[in-house]
Design goal:
heterodimer, A: mainly alpha, 9 helices, B: flat
Chain lengths: 182, 157
């Protein structure tokens, strides 16, 4: 197996993980693709070291996360202003994901459909709520680490995550009492 | 925020998010990445970044650059020792030599002026220069922070 073939196999093994990280942070497919490409170009430069490293997954995730956050802080401000004017409301927080009309609501959905809806709801959150939520739930970062990474206060991270969860609950019609959590 | 409600909410949302699997990358993405890698690999060495040059070329370029820098320093030192470039190069570089002489005179004037100043004045001058540099760095940092603030606020708010 040549180096190129080995790298191609490596790329196929990890591309979904890297793409998911970038996609959930940026909520934009073309940006996520660009970030994934950049992550693997960097990985190629040090493939000899990474190839047999047990921490390669963590390395790829960290690079993808950092590139996504850099991308968000660098480029979003250029167009968010206009998109917010056009949108008019605060980031579609109250928008509810459209569930198909069925009689026995949650049971009727196949698991894959449900996942699609959750994914859609997550990507519909504003960046300020989605980014800390994704960093906490998917990347396993603590609130303090998120605050440090984003350069914001700990209180703000807690508030944003709480609001993000509330927005998801509304979008997904999650009923805490019915789910036996009370 | 009600702590009980918060815990329920966190558990509920966590369950939903835990159910998510990895998103599939677009099928064409792997091919696109491999194409870019092949293009980069096919580029000649002088078009690539210096750290990716072959070791022999990196070593050679480093030696050449160090040699050129050393040669320049040595040449400048030698010219200074000779005092006048005119005796070395005759009339070929008359203009450059005149400029060199003028610079030499200026340096002499400045050094004479400084040597006549008291130690206190020189120390004060250095302190002022240092304070000016610190002020410039501080102002620059403030400007950069103010310029970057809107971008960070996008994530913050």
């Amino acid at each position: 197996m040549t180096d190129a073939q080995q790298f191609e196999a490596f790329l196929h093994n990890y591309q979904n993980m890297v793409f998911s990280t970038a996609m959930r942070l940026t909520a934009n497919q073309s940006e996520a693709e660009d970030i994934t490409q950049e992550v693997f170009l960097r990985a190629y430069e040090r493939f000899a070291d990474l190839q047999n490293s047990p921490t390669v997954g963590g390395w790829l995730k960290t690079v993808a996360t950092n590139l996504s956050l850099n991308h968000l802080s660098r480029y979003r401000s250029r167009w968010t202003f206009f998109s917010e004017i056009l949108r008019g409301t605060d980031d579609d927080e109250n928008e509810v994901v459209e569930f198909p009309e069925t009689e026995d609501s949650q049971e009727a959905f196949a698991a894959a459909d449900r996942r699609d809806l959750v994914e859609q709801a997550l990507q519909g959150l504003s960046a300020s709520q989605r980014v800390p939520l994704v960093l906490h739930h998917f990347e396993g970062l603590r609130y303090e680490e998120i605050a440090e990474k984003l350069g914001v206060s700990l209180g703000k991270v807690k508030t944003d995550i709480f609001r993000g969860r509330e927005a998801l609950r509304r979008k997904l019609h999650l009923n805490l009492k019915e789910e036996g959590l009370v | 925020m009600n702590p009980q409600h918060e815990k329920q909410l966190e558990a509920s949302v966590r369950r939903e998010l835990d159910s998510l699997s990895e998103l599939p990358a677009p099928p064409a993405l792997a091919n696109r990445i491999m194409r870019v890698i092949k293009q980069r690999a096919a580029a000649p060495w002088y078009r690539r970044a210096w750290p990716t040059w072959p070791l022999a070329l990196r070593t050679t370029s480093l030696v050449v650059l160090l040699g050129a820098f050393g040669g320049l320093c040595f040449g400048a030192w030698e010219l200074n020792q000779v005092g006048t470039g005119q005796s070395l190069f005759g009339g070929w570089f008359a203009d450059a030599c005149a400029l060199w002489r003028t610079l030499g005179v200026l340096v002499n004037v400045v050094s004479t002026f400084i040597s006549r100043l008291g130690t206190g004045v020189i120390a004060t001058g250095f302190a002022l220069m240092f304070a000016t540099c610190v002020a410039c760095i501080g102002l620059g940092s403030v400007c950069v922070r103010m310029a970057m603030r809107p971008a960070m606020n996008r994530i913050e708010s």
